[in-house]
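Hi U.,

Before I forget, here's the chain from the pilot set. I'm dumping it here mostly so it's searchable later in email.
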Amino acid sequence: MLYLEFLFLLLMLYIGSRFGGIGLGVVSGIGLVIEVFIFRMPAGKPPVNVMLIILAVVTCASILEAAGGLKYMLQIAERILRRNPKRITFLGPITTYIMTVMLGTGHSVYSIMPIIGDIALKNNIRPERPMAAASVASQLSITASPLSAAVVYYLAQITKLPGYEHVTLLGIIAVTIPATFLGTLALSLYSTRRGKELEQDPVYQARLKDPIWRDRILNAESTSLNDILPKEAKIALWLFVLSLVAIVAVAILPEIRTIGDAKKPISMSLIIQMMMLCFGGLILLATKTHPQNVPNGVVFKSGMVAAIAIFGIAWMSDTYFQFAMPEFKAAVTEMVRSQPWTFAFALFIVSVVINSQAATAVMMLPVGIGLGLPAPLLIGLMPATYGYFFIPNYPSDIATINFDVTGTTKIGKFYFNHSFMAPGLIGVVTACISGVFIAEMIIR
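Structure:
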């Protein structure tokens, strides 16, 4: 019966994934009700802390966007890219990597991707090379961001394990930053020679023969450098950077978080929520940004959708796994102990289905802990929570395809032979292998 119920869980995730976003969350709500009232499972716990972190981070980042700070960051990035156009296949992915680490979300890719494509095309570089790599790098780096809900959830769960109470936010990102950055370099290196050159690419040459496409390609220009930003944009960006510094500083110095006679310091999940709300307010006041403009940006809309999706997915999944854990553990413990990489495979498959690293973490980390996997292995395999490039339906990947006017970034004839597959697999595998080695040295 447990296997049938697990198949039901996967079915609900699959149905929800066909709608994506909010649909994934509310369809999971249908599954939750059936689990509780038809299958008679005790209701699990909703992922309140993860949702609150997402809400706080998205709110601050959305105020940054409304104040012009995100556009100012974009202009800085564009100047660097245009000064080094021949290195766009490396610098493009590194740029999206850094933006995600700073913002805690990969949805900033929408603003920089047309610029990466424009630079590549004007320098006769196949746009697929930097664009597909940059899209993958923007998601791979989520587990390297101190603002990421997935990272903070890992921190909260790992510190509950005996012998690992001392693990800090800084300790986790000291593993995930170098691991995912190595993954980004590896996928960028692969991308430098992938595909045919533009003069030999049949799709691009066919578009040049079409008058409409030819005009669009030859006259395409995307830049943010002509936008005149208010002086407050710079203030907003530096205040946001200061919020990151404050979070890292508090993470390094737990005595700051130990208030009064408390025996334990305030958890980092609460610290991030406090800091994001605080600095969001400071940006709002310092830049005099109108609050009504905040919900109109891309970051706010995508972040709220992610929160709702995680709400339903994680609650439904927790209900099943808490109910099934005794038998589930007995069935797979020996396999995972003898071949620990199989847990990375499980993380990857779940991520493919539910399109969220935070939701994958909430769903699968308790399973890994329940199976008795060591903390360094769990942390080292964190990049495997990014598997949703496998099926090319994620918004940033679809947007990247649409931004490439040459047609080189595409979904292949057989659906799975798309532009993001090879960079994604190379990036995740490299990051996981590197992460396990680094975690064994750092997490003790």
